[in-house]
Amino acid sequence: MERPYTPLRIERGTGIVVLDQTCLPHEERYLEMRTVEAVGEAIRELRVRGAPLLGLCGAAGLAVAAEDRGVSDEALRTAMDELDATRPTAVDLGAALRRALTLALDAPEEQRRDLLWDHAETVARERLDEDERLAEMGAPLIQPRWSVLTHCNTGALATGGRGTALAVIARAWEQGRIERCYATETRPLLQGARLTTWELQKLGIPATLLPDAAAASLIASRHVQAVITGADRIAANGDTANKVGTYGLALAAARHGIPFYIAAPMTTVDRACRGGDGIPIEFRRESEVGGFGETRWAPAGVDAYNPAFDVTPATLITGIITERGIAEHPYETGIAALG
Ligand code: MRU
């Protein structure tokens, strides 16, 4: 399938090219990155974002580090630590960095550059393949003529493949099941308003944008029959961290008796993390709440509570859609059964 845009392109032996998601939807600006600092800045500032894409960026980022700083154990370890420290919640980033580092350190130095680029290219192919399978698994859960609500951005922009929750929605659309996709704006960085609506338009799926604050009343109104979101880290018991506001959507879905699904690749499952309490939550700066870009609307000096993610307890999740199948309650065994 021809892809009209790609959030991260690997330029073997040189660096990576990233679609700057902070400029969307008004400008498709591509940035070439050849240093660890540039990759780290792009992750911190959400030029690249979305848990699975952060995994790909981590793997490719270590290949960039090999070109930028050399292939000694120390150079690679330091680069890994720097990139790992950029965003703490998405498990894919740290896991992908560790996987790439282990691979490199197990090889003689003269082979490390090639191995790291090979590995980054493998991860890029895995993303495409796993997303396709995940979409295929999840689409049948959507009943014909359903409208669904989604949160944040989980399309190709967030994975480098086809997406997670948005890929399920797109596959269900292709199968004639979806009537409409409602997308929350996703305060404060507006991934829903800026990115999801852009992707829905490109996919040709009827889309409606709503303020986050309108989600509960939308669910109560019966205009949507399911909520489906992505994940940044899924604990072994099924508790799931995703973009802040997801927990509220799950509560509203439960209150009004509609299913709430999580869609994520198995790389987003953190088996070492037993429950939601163990998931590190990223808190971001006040300026992202008190304004947007150059515009400020809050008075200078105001304090802000700005967690980037929240944790939805497993009890509120109807099913977890992965490329290997759909995990159900109880998730300890449901997830383990997927291998
Ligand atoms: O802060 P972001 O934009 O990286 O947050 C992204 C999300 O919360 C997504 O829902 C999640 O990473 C899944 S992406 C397929």
**Spatial strand arrangement across the major sheet:** 6-5-4-7-10-15-16
How much is the radius of gyration in Å?
Answer: 19 Å
* Structure class: alpha/beta
Oligomer: single chain
Strand content: 15-25%
Q: What is the first-to-last residue Cα distance? A: 29 Å
Ligand species: 5-S-methyl-1-O-phosphono-5-thio-D-ribulose
Mean pLDDT: 97
Helix content: 25-40%
Number of helices: 11
User: Which CATH class of the largest domain?
Assistant: Alpha Beta
Could you state the order of secondary-structure elements as H and E? Answer: EEEHHHHHEHHEHEHEEEHEEEEEEEH
The shape is globular
Write the CATH architecture name of the largest domain.
3-Layer(aba) Sandwich
Low-confidence runs (pLDDT<50, min 5 residues)? none
Tally of strands:
16
User: Biggest sheet, open or closed, and with what strands and sense?
Assistant: 7 strands, mixed
* Structural domain tally: 2
CATH superfamily of the largest domain: Translation initiation factor eif-2b, domain 2
Question: At the third CATH level, what is the topology name of the largest domain?
Answer: Rossmann fold
Itemize the secondary structure elements and their pairings.
Blueprint: E1 8-11, E2 15-19, E3 30-33, H1 36-44, H2 51-69, H3 73-84, H4 91-105, H5 109-138, E4 146-150, H6 156-159, H7 165-174, E5 178-184, H8 191-203, E6 207-210, H9 215-220, E7 226-229, E8 233-235, E9 240-243, H10 246-255, E10 260-263, E11 269-270, E12 291-292, E13 295-296, E14 309-312, E15 319-322, E16 325-327, H11 331-336
Helix pairs in contact: 1-2, 2-3, 2-4, 2-5, 3-4, 4-5, 5-7
